[in-house]
Predict the 3D structure of the following.
Amino acid sequence: GGIAPYLREGKSYTALVPDYVVAKEPENSLLYTKCAPGGSMATYTPAADLALMKRWINAGAKND
């Protein structure tokens, strides 16, 4: 279950946005809140990856 099956090349963007990622709103993005401190995936998410994810979401979560 969860979002792991969607994190495959070619599927990840359309599978995550807008269901798990809200552009410019990391606090309202399930992907981010699960990986942020206190989230169920926080233990497995390096700080650098979390920062990159937050920048991407704040920049509009573009498919680039």
